[in-house]
Amino acid sequence: MANVGAVVNSIRNIMRQDRGISGDAQRLEQLGWMLFLKILDDKDQELEMIKDNYLSVIPYRFRWCNWAANAEGITGDELLIFIDSTEESSKGLFASLRDLKDPTHPKRAAIVKEVFDGSNNFMKSGYEMRKVINKLNEIDFNNSEDKHIFGDIYESILQELRDAGNKGEYYTPRAVTQLMTQLTDPKLGEKILDPAAGTGGFLTAAIDHVRANYVQTVDDEHVLQKSITGWELKPVAYVLGLTNLILHEMDVPDYHYIDSLKKEYNGISRKDEVDVILANPPFGASIADGVETNFPAAFRCKESADLFVILMLQLLKANGRCAIVLPDGSITGEGVKARIRERLLTNVNLHTIVRLPQSTFFPATVSTNLLFFQKGTPTKEIWYYEHKLPAGQKSYSKTKAIQFEEFAPLIEWWSNRIETDQAWKVRVEDLKGLDLDIKNPFKKEEAIEFSKKELLEKLRCTHLKIIELLNELDR
Question: What is the pLDDT of residue 153?
Answer without folding.
Answer: 65
